Amino acid sequence: MSACEQTARQKRGAHGSSYFLRPLAALVQAFCLGIIFFAHAPAAETAETVRAQLSARRFAAISAEVAAKINRMHVPEGGAFQSGDVLVSFDATLQAAQVERAQAVLSAAEKTASANQRLLKLQSVGQVEAELSEAEVRKARAELAYAQAMLAKCQIKAPFPGRVAEQRAHDQEFVQVGQSLLEIIDDAMPQIDFIAPSKWLAWLQVGQSLQVRIDETGKTYAAKIERLGARADPVSQSVKIVAGVVGTHPELIAGMSGTILIAPETKP
Fold first, then answer.
1. Which residue spans within the chain are E strands per DSSP?
2. In CATH, what number does 48-57+188-266 get?
3. Which of 246, 247, 229 is nearest to 238 (CA)?
4. φ and ψ of 119, to 5 deg
5. Do the beta carbons of residue 261 and residue 212 sit within 8 Å?
6. What is 247-264 written as a DSSP string?
7. Does the pTM of the predicted model rise above 0.70?
8. How far is residue 38 CA from its own chain's centroid?
9. Sign of the CA dihedral 254, 259, 263, 267?
């Protein structure tokens, strides 16, 4: 092969390599430009979501006010009751006897005071003695009121309608003053509690609509904000929000959890 032919072949080889490399270089350049464009492109606006929990609007821990034996727990755990229903009744034998004793003491004191008033008119007793007998009547009335109050504490009545969430004592057990017996909750429509970023206060308002998806039911419910937290946590930069579900949904109970969804279009 002559020197001229070798030179010509080398030129053709170099030309061919550049022919195949040019499309590859263009593809790499386009990919890099795409990454740069994606990095600088504005993010699509999405809905804001936070976790939430359903809680009872009213609840109470019921404790014993007297040291006595439980006669009966009238409502079992999970059972429903109405306002004023008896939840727990204690053995009231001692308290009932104290009421009878106080009534007898009051009756005797009233008779003595009445007799002294008649004798005072006849000037058979002094003014001081008559006044002391009236004081004894007032004292006996106070003791009777105290005994009746203690007797009333032998029955615990429901302060509101609801259900028994937890039972911590049983029939025939002896309990002490202050011992926990029951936890009760209002089983009406529960409220929605959630913690939101404090920066949301710039656009959150009482009465604002939102949605909550409950994990246990798999359903989404309409709700409205009822209360905004009185203060924000400076450490977590969050604030507590309370909302209420719109409408009646018997399947919702306290303790369920889910996700709050606030769409961007609802923001002022």
1. 48-55, 59-63, 68-73, 80-81, 86-90, 155-157, 162-167, 174-175, 180-185, 191-197, 209-214, 220-228, 238-245, 257-262
2. 2.40.30.170
3. 229
4. -65, -30
5. yes
6. S--TT--TT-EEEEEE-G
7. no
8. 45
9. positive
Question: What is the residue-level pLDDT of the chain in tens, covering all 268 positions?
Answer: 444 454 445 444 444 444 444 544 544 453 443 433 333 333 334 456 799 999 999 999 999 999 999 999 999 999 999 999 999 999 999 999 999 999 999 999 999 999 988 888 888 878 888 889 899 999 999 999 999 999 999 999 999 999 999 999 999 999 999 999 999 999 888 999 999 999 988 888 899 999 999 999 999 999 999 999 999 999 999 999 999 999 989 899 999 999 998 854 444 4
The angle formed by the CA atoms of residues 167, 242 and 78, to the nearest 5 degrees, is 20
Q: What is the CATH number of domain 59-185?
A: 2.40.50.100
- Which residues does residue 52 pair with via DSSP β-bridges, in sequence order? 194, 258
Euclidean distance between CA atoms 99 and 154, whole angstroms: 13
Condensed to tens digits (0 to 9), the pLDDT of residues 75-119 reads 999 999 999 999 999 999 999 999 999 999 999 999 999 998 888
How many residues would you count in the chain? 268
Q: Domain limits of the chain?
A: 1-41, 48-57+188-266, 59-185
Identify the H or E element spanning 33.
helix 3-40
Per DSSP, 228 falls in state E
Token reading at 165: 């969430």
Do 191 and 225 meet the contact criterion of CB atoms below 8 Å apart?
no
Residues 6+ apart with CB under 8 A from 143: 102, 105, 106
d(CA 177, CA 180): 9
What three-state secondary structure class fits 27?
helix
